[in-house]
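Run log // design_07
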């Protein structure tokens, strides 16, 4: 019985420490309880209860708060003070990666539609070289052009969207004990990579690619080699 009481005290203390860190990060970001409430999708009292250590946030909620406060998730799970963390969301790198993801998706849609780079160039009235740069992620695709290509290839615009963490999805899935245990068994460097919000784009890309058929992946790889060489 004493051990159970000791464990309860540790959990209570851990919850209160996490709440203080969340409140400190929120104040540092200049956000109100209402703003966090609306973004995360829980009540203002719910956010307050988390900050005062009365309730536990879910991991998705914690990840979204990290994005809102511009801090790495690992800050909430470690003993490192916020002032010692030099971290900012890598906006330029994220945009560059998104360009490459959109390029891969565009090429995939083109191949599945049985169209050539020349066909896309004719539709946009641009050069074939520019289409190749779009598909390689070298150049950003203007939104109006992307909408034209989406309609031409018969795909919805949300095919190109990166969902990442959205307020509508937060809280829909709460990790089970089994999932938490599996996560805990992963190598430390893998856990750290997964907990970093900046890596969500890489994870989303891997998930997108894992859904493609072997034939489509082969065509994408061969096409990229052709363009490169």
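design_07 sequence
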């Amino acid at each position: 019985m004493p051990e159970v009481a000791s464990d309860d005290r540790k959990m209570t203390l851990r919850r209160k420490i996490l709440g203080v860190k969340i409140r400190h990060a929120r104040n540092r970001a200049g956000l109100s309880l209402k703003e966090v409430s609306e973004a995360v999708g829980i009540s203002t009292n719910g956010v307050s209860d988390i900050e005062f250590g009365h309730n536990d946030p879910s991991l998705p909620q914690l990840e979204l708060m990290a994005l809102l406060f511009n801090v790495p998730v690992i800050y909430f799970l470690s003993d490192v003070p916020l002032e010692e963390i030099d971290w900012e969301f890598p906006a330029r790198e994220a945009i560059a990666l998104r360009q490459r993801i959109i390029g891969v998706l565009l090429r995939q849609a083109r191949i599945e539609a049985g169209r050539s780079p020349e066909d896309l160039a004719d539709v946009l009235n641009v050069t074939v070289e520019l289409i190749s740069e779009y598909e390689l992620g070298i150049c950003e695709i203007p939104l109006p052009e992307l909408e034209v290509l989406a309609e031409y290839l018969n795909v919805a615009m949300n095919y190109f969207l990166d969902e990442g963490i959205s307020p509508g999805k937060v809280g829909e899935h709460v990790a089970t004990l089994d999932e938490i245990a599996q996560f805990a068994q992963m190598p430390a460097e893998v856990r750290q990579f997964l907990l970093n919000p900046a890596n969500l784009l890489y994870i989303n890309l891997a998930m997108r690619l894992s859904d493609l058929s072997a034939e489509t992946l082969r065509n994408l790889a061969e096409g990229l080699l052709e363009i490169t060489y």
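DSSP finds 13 helices and no strands in the chain.
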